[in-house]
Amino acid sequence: MDDPRRPIKKICIVGGGSAGWIAAALLSEHFKGKVAEIELVESDDIGIVGVGESTIPPFLQMLTRLGINEQEFLQEVQGSFKLGILFKDWKLKGEEYIHPFGYFGVPVELGDLYQVWLRARAEGYTRGLQEFAAASVMLNEDRFTLPFKAPRTPIASASYAVHIDARKMARYLRRFSEARGVTRTEGIVENVTQHPNGFVESVILKDGRRIEADFFIDCTGFRALLINKTLGVGYHDWSQWLLSNRAVALQVTNPTPPGPYTLAHAQDAGWCWRIPLQQRSGVGYVFCDRYCSDDEALATLLKQADGEPVVDPWIIPFKTGMREKLWDKNVLSLGLAGGFIEPLESTALHLIYRGMDFFLRFMPDADCDPVLITEYNQRMTQDYEEIRDFVIMHYAMTQREDNAYWREIRNMEMPESLSSKIDLFKVNGTIREGVDLMFRSVSWQSVLEGMGVKPRAYHPLTDRIDFTDMPRYLDQGAAAIRHAVLGLPTHGDFLRDHCTAPSPEWLAPV
């Protein structure tokens, strides 16, 4: 019996940067030089956005999947560690909270410390929720170790991600991919040809070279050259919920050792980020141009940058949302070509990885069966929308009314998918888990608590727990976490001793 399949013999990735080279690395590692040829087309003359420098823990799963040594990688990309995000001035000016990675480190009956804490608070207990999160205590004390290196201590309840230099990461993954057979072609795509059925047939470079393939991955950034300009796939605009539409970005020196967290500091028209690497920090201001000009945004950023600029600032206009279809015909869109959610929770690189993970699960033959395409698009849309809702929640729960920007946010109508989730939480702290499980209950509990959102009651099953000695038990648990944390090296010392990139002054051996 003849095999009806037409296997993919060649995949062309159009565009480099983080999206292109993550795609190339994952394809080359999984194909092992046997499944299909991989060619990546990019031009040094086309700049990349390059500000996706903060990650979340699943990024490290990608490194493991690629067989990349984490220590070596961090040295190459001047990386530092990230235990969570510190949010300043989001609920009200002068208040801050932490979204930690990991889980709460005090074991309790029923397994949900948050519910036990809610009951304890209802009975007069005063200790804060984040005192039970090892990642939060480490972050506050500027301490770090790899949690899996302390398996029988409270530190093991923490998790971590990394801060990276995006351009250095792209160069690292380029070397990785080329060593596994990926062909890099330098050139600017000027035209795209299509088959009669609408599938992309080839890309034609400015110098006339023609590159044919069976499948194309669009990593051309906001230009979306294949998915939008060629195939005409539209865009779901989410700017009615996420008002920011511009960012100014900058790189500055580190006057002090980098802290193990990303800073998200709310401003009068958006928020500023600080992502500390070993040798410099990435800083930026995500803002709404109806409330702030480019010059005003840059002035605000420079005032708060806490370091000297090492490059000229650049402006990034954007529209928050995603493609109506991330995969259409024989074109898959990744990164900014597929969608953009402002970097408040550092999800850009995760969505690239997820996009490739699901493509490899649903990988088609050259005919691209519509069933696979539909399943992929539904699954990835769920991820995008869950991340969208989690980011919107930081804004929607604000209590700020100090200017027109924050008043507009307070008065906006949330997506039903988010408002119903918050209504559920307000009953007794129940969290509706998502399909990705990237932001688990601890994330929602930490952010909602930080934003002042309180359940009306605790879960009824918590009443079965004997609470006679519970306050003392909780105090002992928090004390054990703090004692373990204070025995750790500082984040700067850990970087110097384990994954030093050459060599700012603060990293020099003592």
Automatic annotation (TrEMBL):
Q: State the InterPro entries in the record.
A: Flavin-dep_Halogenase_NPB, Flavin_halogenase, Trp_halogen
Q: Which domain of life is it from?
A: Bacteria
Q: What is this protein called?
A: Tryptophan 7-halogenase
Q: Name the species this protein comes from.
A: Brevundimonas nasdae
